[in-house]
Design goal:
The longest helix is centred in the middle third of the chain and has 21 residues, at 52-72. This protein is mostly helical. The chain has 9 helices and no strands.
């Protein structure tokens, strides 16, 4: 564990304050409980530009890409950030299948790259500190999606 400075702690608290803003809370709650797209086509079909859902997606993704970029550049102690940022990893898990296609379509290889790099670093840290927890999360998510799909039929 690194030595955490007051400046790093204050930056983490500021990021937390941004997450508590009412519209951001709404966007995060919706994204975590409702967002589900497996391709850019499905994303655009379900959440077209100009929709409230599209705005929520952009808020959540841009927030976590920004926060991840700060951590990736060493502005915060990794362990302190990782201990408080599992949500960012969860966000990446929900979009990682569609991002490569979006990057290609936009001709932007850096789209959500900070979030992806953070997620990879977080995952390695989590496996060191809580072996098996990543796979358990993924299995729980898969089971939840299956249960939701079967109850919808």
């Amino acid at each position: 564990m690194g030595q955490v400075t007051h400046e790093q702690a204050n930056l983490l608290l500021r990021l937390y304050e941004l997450r508590r803003e009412p519209r951001m809370r709404q966007a995060r709650a919706w994204f975590y409980s409702q967002f589900d797209a497996n391709s850019p086509q499905e994303l655009m079909s379900k959440y077209p530009m100009g929709s409230e859902e599209s705005a929520s997606i952009r808020m959540v993704l841009s927030y976590w890409d920004m926060a991840a970029g700060m951590a990736n550049r060493g502005l915060m102690d990794d362990e302190m950030f990782f201990e408080n940022s599992a949500e960012g990893w969860s966000v990446w898990e929900k979009v990682k299948a569609i991002v490569p296609v979006q990057r290609e379509a936009m001709k932007n290889p850096t789209y959500l790259l900070q979030l992806e790099n953070f997620a990879n670093r977080f995952e390695a840290w989590r496996e060191r500190t809580a072996p098996g927890s990543i796979e358990a999360f993924r299995q729980t998510r898969t089971n939840t999606r299956r249960a939701a799909a079967s109850s919808a039929n």
